[in-house]
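Re: weekly structure request thread

Next one in the queue (368 aa):
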Amino acid sequence: MKLYEYAAKEIFSGYGIPVPKGKIVTNADEAREITAKSGEVVIKAQVLAGGRGKAGGIVKVSNPADAARNAQRILGMSIKGLPVKKLLVEEYKKPGKEMYLGITIDRTAKCPVIMASPEGGIDIEETARSSPEKIVRIRINPLAGLHDYQARMLAYSLDKKNAYAIADVIKKLCRVFMDYDCTLAEINPLAETGDGIFALDAKMVIDDSALFRQDFKEEDTGSLEELANKNGMSYVGLEGDIGCIVNGAGLAMATLDMITYYGGKPANFMDVRAGANAQQIKTALGIVSSSRNVKAIIINIFGGITRCDEVARGIVEVMPEIKLPLVIRLTGTNEDEGRRMLEKRGIILALSTEEAAAAVVKLEHPDR
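Done, posted below.
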C-alpha cells in the first residue's frame, strides 16, 4: 500500500523527523487562506505517482491570488492518469543542498538496505544510472538493527557539516521502516536549509501482507494499481502509449520487451493471472483503457487454465465501451472458438507474441 506524501510526512513528524509545516486542502479558497497567513508556500498535488514537478503539479507561490489560481489549476489536472483531488500546502524551505535517503528490501540479501546519495532531487534515477558510485548502500541486519556507527558513516558520506542531524534522521527513518512494515521509506530530497535539515518530500510503501497489524485503514486512492489489485490482478503504470493485458508475469514481461524491440512504448504492465474469466477481462480492459496515455491495446493470452473463449467473450461484451484499436493473440484452451468470436468483430488477430507486438506498434506508429 502506497501512502500519500502528506500521510507519510505525518508519520515522519511523529518520529521526530523534521518536515515543513503543511495542511491538506481540497479547494482554491483554502489555499488562498493558508498563503495569506503563511507567506511563501509550496502547493503540491497529492497523487500516488512520480514526476509531479515535471507535470506542473508542484509550484512555489508567495501571494494569496497566485495560490488560489495555481490550486485551481492543479486540482483540474490528471497526472499519469490519476486525477488530483487534494493538495498539500506547506511552508517553503529553500534547499541549500539536496540529498537522497531511502530504505528498501534487498531481496538477494534478504534484509533491508539503506541507500544514500549526496545528490538527491528529481534526477536521482539518472544519478543511479550514470554515477552509481555516488550512491552508498548499507545492509541492515534484521536482528541487530542499524548500528550507530553505520548511521554516522552514512551521514558523513552525505554532509560532514550536518552529520549529527542527518545520522539522527537516518536512525528515525529506520525505525519508521521497521515499525510500519515498509517495503520502501524514502526522503527525496533530504535538504539542508537555513533552518536545519528537513525532509522536503516523503514516500512510504507498506507491505500489503502486514496491513492486518497496522492501526490505520487503507485509504481509497483511486489508483489503477489499487483497482487492479482489488480485482486479483497486477498493474504497474509506465510511460508509453500501448496498453498491455497479459496472463502470466513472465509472458507480460516478454510482451513489453517485444513492444520495445519494435519501437513502441508500453503504457503499463498488467497480469490478469491464470484462470481469468470474461468479467475479469472486461475489468482489465476498463482499467487499461482509462489511462489517457493509451492509444492502442495488445491482449496476449496463453490459454491453459484460462479459456480463450472466455477471454473472447469478455472482449466482445466490452468492445462498445472501448474506443481504442485492439490487437489480440489467443492460443491454447478453446483457441479456435475464441478466435471465431473475435474474427466476426473484425478485430486484428495475431498468431504469436512477436506478430502481435509488431502489429500494435505499426497500428499506433505507422512509420515504424
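The chain has twelve helices and 18 strands. The longest strand covers residues 182-193.
Next request, please.
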